[in-house]
């Protein structure tokens, strides 16, 4: 009989509700025993949908429950570090959505609390669990196509999120591009320097709070390779997600997925389906797999695949990119901390 991990989800908004559904419907190794949200009615709606009996407003009520082995934190970003500290002190294993926090001092405090308590802390960088990106990494790491030389990532959203979200997001380098900063480390290891450039070309309202909608980040890696990330807040043709690692004896690429594989030929030429509309569709399997692996690590006492240190490193790269953009110069990662 499978030993199930009793897990509680803290925060049942957009991502939290997705995790709740995935745990109940697709991860038999876990038992969703409780949900929590300061908006009790939101948590109750999720609980009613999934047949969850316990619904609370205050997450501390869950931390005092010895039957709950792990917590999944999907609350708002400013709450992450405090909940991690409290959960660690209570001896809970922790999965936390990215970013761990916006402040590096808060992140360090959360990591120290988890280490002191001896609990696992996994960060929700779901794209590491994409089968195509993982295969590119395996090909490059095997050495079969030689030494990695150039990494290129394209990450373009199909449309802007709400301005209310953008105002509190930390900006394009700590929101949209943070996934890319984690991905470049996943693919090629540590980055030592970044140079970022960007502009507001699509939505003038971003000028009011100093954000960008278009950027390119050039990277230098510790292994000598170089890289480039390009981001846009709005690609009218759909969600654009591409990656390539060019090596001395070949290249490994992951192109866009499409809604279906059918191709229509007519007088206008050949037409194929659009990419999936947004990240919830494109990366749906990844959200399942990241939590499934976390649960497996808890069950078998194994190291988690995406650590708190990984979570911190992505935020550091985001701050380095902002510093580079504002000062119009290359910035060494060692300048950030």
Kindly report how far apart the N and C termini lie: 47 Å
The tally of strands reads 15
Tally of discrete structural domains: 2
The helicity comes to: 25-40%
Please write the CATH class name of the largest domain: Alpha Beta
Low-confidence stretches: none
Give a verbal description of the structure.
By secondary structure, the chain is α/β, with parallel strands linked by helices. It has two domains: 5-119, NAD(P)-binding Rossmann-like Domain (Rossmann fold, 3-Layer(aba) Sandwich); 128-277 and 314-335, Dihydrodipicolinate Reductase, domain 2 (2-Layer Sandwich), CATH 3.30.360. The chain is 36% helix and 25% strand. The strands form three sheets. Strands 12-11-7-10-9-8-15 form a seven-stranded mixed β-sheet. A six-stranded parallel β-sheet has the order 3-2-1-4-5-6, with helices on both faces. The protein is globular and about 55 Å long. The mean pLDDT is 96.
Topology of this protein?
Elements: E1 5-10, H1 14-26, E2 30-36, H2 40-50, E3 54-56, H3 60-63, E4 70-73, H4 80-89, E5 93-97, H5 104-117, E6 121-124, H6 131-142, E7 148-156, H7 163-167, H8 178-188, E8 191-199, E9 214-221, E10 226-232, E11 240-247, E12 250-254, E13 263-266, E14 269-272, H9 279-282, H10 284-300, H11 308-327, E15 331-332
Q: Main attributes?
A:
337 residues; alpha/beta; Rossmann fold; Dihydrodipicolinate Reductase, domain 2; 7-stranded mixed sheet; 6-stranded parallel sheet; 11 helices; 36% helix; globular
Q: Short summary of the structure?
A:
This protein has 337 residues and is an alpha/beta fold. The protein is 36% helix and 25% strand. Helix 1 (14-26) links the parallel strand 1 (5-10) and strand 2.
């Amino acid at each position: 009989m499978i030993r199930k991990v009793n897990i509680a989800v803290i925060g049942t908004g957009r991502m939290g509700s997705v995790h709740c559904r995935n745990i109940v419907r697709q991860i038999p190794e876990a038992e969703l025993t409780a949900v929590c949200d300061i908006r009790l009615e939101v948590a109750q709606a999720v609980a009613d949908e999934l047949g969850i009996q316990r619904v609370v407003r205050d997450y501390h009520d869950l931390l005092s429950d010895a039957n709950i082995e792990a917590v999944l934190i999907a609350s708002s970003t400013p709450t992450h570090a405090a909940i991690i500290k409290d959960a660690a002190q209570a001896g809970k294993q922790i999965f936390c959505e990215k970013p761990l926090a916006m402040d590096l001092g808060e992140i360090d405090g959360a990591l120290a609390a988890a280490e002191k308590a001896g609990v696992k802390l996994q960060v929700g960088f779901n794209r590491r669990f994409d089968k195509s990106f993982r295969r590119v990494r395996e090909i490059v790491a095997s050495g079969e196509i030689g030494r990695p030389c150039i990494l290129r990532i394209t990450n373009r959203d199909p449309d802007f999120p709400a301005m209310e979200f953008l105002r509190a997001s930390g900006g394009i380098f700590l929101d949209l591009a943070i996934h890319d900063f984690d991905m470049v480390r996943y693919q090629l290891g540590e980055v030592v320097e970044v140079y970022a450039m960007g502009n507001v070309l699509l939505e003038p309202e971003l000028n009011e709070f100093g954000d960008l909608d278009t950027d390119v980040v050039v990277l230098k890696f510790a292994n000598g390779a170089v890289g480039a990330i390009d981001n846009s807040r709005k690609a009218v043709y759909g969600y654009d997600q591409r990656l390539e690692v060019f090596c001395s004896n070949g290249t490994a690429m992951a192109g866009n997925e499409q809604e279906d594989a059918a191709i229509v030929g007519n007088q206008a030429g050949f037409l194929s389906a659009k990419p999936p509309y947004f990240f919830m569709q494109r990366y749906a399997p990844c959200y399942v797999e990241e939590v499934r692996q976390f649960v497996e690590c808890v069950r078998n006492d194994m190291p988690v695949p995406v650590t708190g240190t990984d979570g911190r490193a992505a935020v550091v790269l985001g701050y380095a990119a902002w510093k580079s953009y504002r000062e119009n110069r290359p910035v060494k990662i060692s300048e950030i901390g």
